[in-house]
TrEMBL record:
This is Radical SAM protein. Pfam families: Radical_SAM. SMART domains: Elp3. It comes from the Bacteria. It comes from Marinomonas phaeophyticola. SUPFAM superfamilies: Radical SAM enzymes. Its cofactor is [4Fe-4S] cluster. The keyword Phosphoprotein does not apply. Residues 184-402 form the Radical SAM core domain.
Length: 426
């Protein structure tokens, strides 16, 4: 009888008060593995959630991660080590693999996450064995079960098993309904998704599926059953991760279902101004909803460059409707954009404040692996640096703003956050 392949998945998570120790992404992968036909007969999988420290604590090191991993599972006994590669964990991955191998790990390493892009993954992480450069629910079990004599990895060690069929998403098991993602009564906050991918093509963003640029809806009856479970458990807040919640035909059905079961949970939605309409706002007004709009910039030269077109007339009309409905919402901007100046950043803020918006947030630009903007950074003179203890590089200088200008933008952004803390929401 052949031995069971033992897999351990390590994720690097920023803990949030009220959130489960298992994040939604990890839980979705675990659920997919547990529903695979070979689970328990050919492989097992465990999860280790490494908590990323906040800025007041010493940064995480590869040695520290290794110690946690070895204490929990003994690296010598692991057959498949699965590591989550994100912008905040990327610096830990290669040294961690080497530490494991030096300490007796003889298995295979599988990498996935937004930082794993087919064109650059082998250069970033040369010591790994498999790289999943797509949604991983289908690919991960294949990598765990892969034997060298098999031919399922037709492109070598890079797995491009994209879930590019609607039926793949329709058949995804729910980590909430099967208990993979543990929920408690009156839990303070959870993350949720009703679809994956984005219809827009912003060149700084990795929410969309870069290869197919498609959006996949999860099975509707599953979504409705999850809502009923959240209602039963009195979950206090749901952060919906859909990049643009109010796209396509199904978002209003979700809201209608929430209304029909008298859901009182705070729903936080990421939405787009141009897609707002009266029916949507009317439905939201019957629920406890807070909306988040990522405008990014109100300056044409900037939003054309980042391929994030904004119809400012429609934006203003939507803001007027939101205020008429007394809808709670916030708007976020990005500073450090190509073609941006200190003055143009102020103009974007003024565009919003002149319409009475007080809940404005601004975030520094990051250049993410696999994005078109990262590939074009030399064209715009985008220079990166470390702005805090997170270890994440951010753009701090360009052809159109100096580092001192960036510092001024950073101060303005920080003060926006302080003003919001002192004031109220729009």
């Amino acid at each position: 009888m052949h031995s069971l392949t033992k897999a351990v998945m390590v994720t690097f998570d920023y803990s949030q008060r009220g959130k489960s120790g298992t994040g939604l992404a990890a839980a979705s992968l675990l659920a997919a593995c547990k529903h695979h036909k070979s689970y328990k007969s050919e492989f097992s999988i465990k999860h280790l959630a490494i908590q990323m420290p906040n800025e007041n604590i010493q940064p995480l090191t590869s040695e520290g991660v290794f110690q946690q991993l070895d204490a929990a599972y003994s690296v010598k006994d692991i057959d498949r080590l699965i590591l989550a590669c994100y912008v905040w964990s990327t610096h830990l991955i290669e040294p961690l693999i080497k530490l494991c191998k030096e300490s007796g790990f003889r298995g295979k390493t599988i990498l996935g996450g937004y930082q794993v892009v087919e064109e650059t993954c082998k250069e970033l992480y040369p010591s790994a064995d498999y790289y999943i450069s797509s949604y991983a629910e289908l690919a991960l079990p294949l990598a765990i079960l892969h034997k060298e004599k098999n031919t399922i990895l037709s492109t070598g060690k890079v797995i491009n098993k994209n879930m590019d069929k609607d039926e793949d998403f329709q058949n995804l098991p729910s980590p909430y309904l099967d208990g993979t993602y543990p929920l408690g009564q009156n839990q303070e906050m959870i993350h949720w998704e009703t679809h994956r991918g984005c219809i827009f093509k912003c060149n700084f963003c990795l929410h969309r599926d870069i290869k197919t640029n498609r959006v996949f809806d999860l099975e509707q009856s599953r979504i409705m059953r999850e809502l009923e479970l959240f209602k039963k458990l009195s979950i206090q807040k749901i952060n919906i991760l859909d990049p643009v919640f109010n796209r396509g035909p199904h978002h209003k059905e979700v809201l209608k279902k929430a209304i029909s079961i008298k859901l009182s949970t705070l729903l936080c939605l990421q939405v787009r101004f141009e897609l707002i309409d009266e029916e949507f706002l009317s439905l939201c007004s019957q629920l406890n909803v807070h909306m988040e709009f990522g405008l990014q910039t109100a300056i044409k030269e900037e939003y054309v460059t980042i391929e994030r077109p904004n119809n400012l007339k429609k934006v203003s009309a939507a803001i007027k409707m939101l205020n008429e409905y007394n809808q709670s919402f916030e708007v976020s901007l990005i500073y450090g954009l190509p073609n941006q100046t200190l003055d143009s950043f102020r103009e974007s803020i003024n565009f919003l404040t002149h319409q009475g918006i007080t809940n404005i947030k601004a975030f520094p630009l990051m250049l993410l692996e696999g994005t078109e903007l990262k590939e074009k950074k030399a064209k715009f003179g985008l220079k990166e640096g470390f702005i805090d203890k997170s270890g994440i590089p951010h753009v701090i200088e360009s052809n159109t703003f100096s580092h001192e200008d960036w510092r001024s933008m950073h101060r303005i952004a920080t003060n926006l956050g302080k003003q919001q803390t002192q004031g109220g929401s729009a």
